[in-house]
User: Fold this.
Amino acid sequence: MEIVIPRRTKEELRRKGSRRIPRTIQLSQGAGGSMMEALIENLIAKRLDIKSSFVGSGIDKLEDAGIIDLGDIKLAFTTDGCTVDPMFYPGGSLGSLSVGATINDLAVMGAKPIAISFGLILEEGLPLDILERTLDRMSEVCKESGVPIITGDTKVMEKGKVDKLIINTAGIGIIQGDIISDYGAQPGDKILVSGTMGDHGMSLVALRFGFQSNLRSDEAPLWHMMEQLLNIGGITSAKDATRGGFGPNINELARKSNVCFYVYEDKIPIKPEAKRLGEVLGIDPLSTACEGKIIMTVEPDKADEILETMRHHKYGKEAAIIGEVRRNPKGQVILETEVGGRKALHTSVGELHPRIC
Amino acid sequence: MEIVIPRRTKEELRRKGSRRIPRTIQLSQGAGGSMMEALIENLIAKRLDIKSSFVGSGIDKLEDAGIIDLGDIKLAFTTDGCTVDPMFYPGGSLGSLSVGATINDLAVMGAKPIAISFGLILEEGLPLDILERTLDRMSEVCKESGVPIITGDTKVMEKGKVDKLIINTAGIGIIQGDIISDYGAQPGDKILVSGTMGDHGMSLVALRFGFQSNLRSDEAPLWHMMEQLLNIGGITSAKDATRGGFGPNINELARKSNVCFYVYEDKIPIKPEAKRLGEVLGIDPLSTACEGKIIMTVEPDKADEILETMRHHKYGKEAAIIGEVRRNPKGQVILETEVGGRKALHTSVGELHPRIC
Assistant:
């Protein structure tokens, strides 16, 4: 089956070259869409691509983590900068988010997290109790995941030069078996998500707009669940659906693996409240961040066991098989609607919702 | 010989406990003095101290890097947050500084840097050419040191929520032989510095005050020089004299090693121009940052060879033996003046000079 739907492809962006990158930094370049991809791929990664025998997978691959090859041991190495407004919200906080994001970036590569670093940028005048509560949340998430924070850095900036508190984390993990890559999805694989999409983003949007809501961030450190899944095997690609949410991240997997992700729209788990709020505000839950959810492809004979194992884990209760990988149209995500129609799910260009981080 | 000089010791700070930490963040807590020590030791490190079998040296040790123990392989892991105003200055830039600082933190632990991560926090509206030039400087320093940047993260914040550009870097190194620790200086060791003290700080001060000056930042990635010194052996402790400069960093070595660092004041290399500028402005070049200098202790029979090797390296031409480690007074740095008098060199409490970063 061939479905050809024209869209702005990565190749087009590349052909148009750096003219597509505006000469001053735009908010949209940090929002997880194609504007951000263009900045990172065409400008940042190119300028920082340095060869070394230790590099198993470098910055040019734009994976969730780089791979360091030490012979018998392969390490995953990743980093995240975090800022959220507000810093504490239902279901999470800046502190837990910062550490969880790094643990999850390692987990989706198939790596057991073994060490985390933090870099704090503090604004002069920040109340100390905010710092204390933030550190406590960081510590809790690390303890839950059995990962030590072994090094750190603290800077204080003058009042007004930074907004309260920025946390950068970096993490090292040991690859347990095969590296799980964004490039590994194969035709025939099943597509799974580990739970409802868009909870983090939609809960923050509800908070910002003052809506009464039971929505909570889905923030969660996913290593322990991922460890169980790695023991089953058969995972061919995986990504945590963070910035930009489901849409940009599943598109990235399809594009990098050069296959079609064929998804049944009605099988994508979304909390009814998130869907309703999205309709009211015109925000698509599929284009807003998750902070504790994985999108993955799995060999077909392992899909049911992976699904059951996820559903037995506290962070995967609403996991679902949402579609399958097909050969064509390559690099595209096709949604089959409830009435049997088909549409392409595109990566957003810039921002689609109020900024939450 | 016993010299007892009362001073505000770490133990005193500790006894006074958290009452010494103000309830809002102060600029002085980021300046490299005892205010910063108290914040990091008594609040941050305590809350983030998590045990794991992989930890060879944890955050509680407050070394330049944490150590991950993988059995046959030991890794050093470090991180730095960087912000400098101005972003480009004689002898360096924010980009080169950010990467160099991380390379040096690994080098002084005795680790060969093998991978670096970056986290960019960009202010909306930042001119793209500033980002491009910054990335190019990062790349140059990495290439000089043979270290790849293998992973990164980019965030964009709204205009006014961050001052232009913050870079966080993290780095991984492989310990080459023995770990060089802050705790290893022994009575009888010689004390060396790899060149003139305070160049980075004094050059930025000159720039800020609009003084005509030939002063340049001493920014340099020191791995290749350190590699030569590690091959000679005999280094018992080492630290790069960054934030706070010579004073706080040599005090930290003395305190952690629980020995006396006995230093001949007239042997400490300082550029005459830095000294004169310091006199005019009342700023001590020994209390302002270096970004390419190491303070180290060396077994006495290796000191001359280490010194000669440094002096043959482009980053160590003005290296000097400045004193020796003695047994008492423990944890103190004693300066012998040109006329034979003695004074204790204390760690500054907060800031001693205009903020440069």
